[in-house]
Amino acid sequence: MMAADRRSGTGRIQQPVFQERNAMRSIILAAAFSLVASSAFAASCKVEAGTKKLAGAAMSSFMTKCETDAKAACEKDSTAKKLAGAAKDAHMKKCVSDAVGS
User: Fold this and answer.
1) pTM of whole model > 0.70?
2) Can you tell me the distance from the alpha carbon of 71 to that of 50, in angstroms, rounded to the nearest whole number?
3) What pLDDT score does 92 carry?
4) Torsions phi, psi of 13, nearest 5?
5) What is the C-alpha to C-alpha distance for residues 75 and 91, in angstroms, rounded to an integer?
6) DSSP string spanning 24-57?
7) Please, which of 25, 64, 88, 94 could form a disulfide with 83 given CB 3.0 to 4.6 Å?
């Protein structure tokens, strides 16, 4: 008997196992790709400053603006997650340090 011809005790035809595996592989690959893509777009301020070859006052200004933007984005994220107290403080510290790259 072929896989598509197998019948269960209820008389219904069982879905072939390989189709389930292919569907699961597709989901896992899509999730992995989205993680890789999001991390590639989330470059830190230090990396971006190095890419732009900034130095001196231009780098200081860029880093200050980048850190301010990071704090605002992290604040918005912690509000969306409804964090408060120590959890919010820990989230803000990690989020900002990840964004700035320190």
Assistant:
1) no
2) 21
3) 92
4) -80, 130
5) 9
6) HHHHHHHHHHHHHHHHHH---HHHHHHHTT--HH
7) 88
3-state SS, residue 13: strand
Cα Rg, the chain, nearest whole Å? 24
User: Which two tokens mark 22?
Assistant: 């292919």
Tokens of 70: 């990071």
Query: Per DSSP, what are the bridge partners of residue 13?
Result: 7
Cα 32-35-39 angle, rounded to 5 deg: 145
Q: Is 49 left (phi over 0), alpha (psi -120 to 50) or beta?
A: alpha
> What are the tens digits of pLDDT across the range 18-72?
566 677 777 776 666 655 544 434 578 888 888 999 899 999 999 999 999 999 9
Q: What are phi and psi of 91, to 5 degrees?
A: -65, -45
